[in-house]
Amino acid sequence: MTRRRVASSSPSVAYLDSSALVKLIAVEAETAALRRELLRWPRRVSSLLAAIELTRVARRLGPLAVPLAQRVLAGLDLLAIDPIAPAAMQIGSNVLRSLDAIHLATAASITAELGVLITYDRRMLADGQGIGLPMLSPQP
Fold first, then answer.
1. What would the pLDDT profile of 16-38 be if each residue is shown by its tens digit?
2. Looking at the whole model, is its pTM more than 0.85?
3. Is 17 annotated among the ligand-binding residues?
4. Which class of enzymes does this protein belong to (predicted)?
5. How many domains does the chain have?
């Protein structure tokens, strides 16, 4: 399921973590603002981890959410986890959770192409800002 590596000469890619992707399959207060922001970023990426997380959430939401999650995932370039593991072990603060560390390390691995990392997780937002990543949580 891992797709092509993103390559670009300028920051043109939006990285979405699982907290953002869930808002695309389950309407929440921030969903409309997120959809508007994504209009600016036709190139979108995430970690292969997001495919697992989003599919698990979709299964909990019910059978109609699963095909929606599949459509959302089809619009992403999914980046492999294995090459990211060493960086994920070291990135961020000690309170950063493991799965969030994988997302941060994956986004950091494409810094040259990264225009924004979209998350709704406060710890990840703070840690991403702390290492200089362009972070955003679109709000209504």
1. 999 999 999 999 999 999 999 99
2. yes
3. yes
4. hydrolase
5. 1
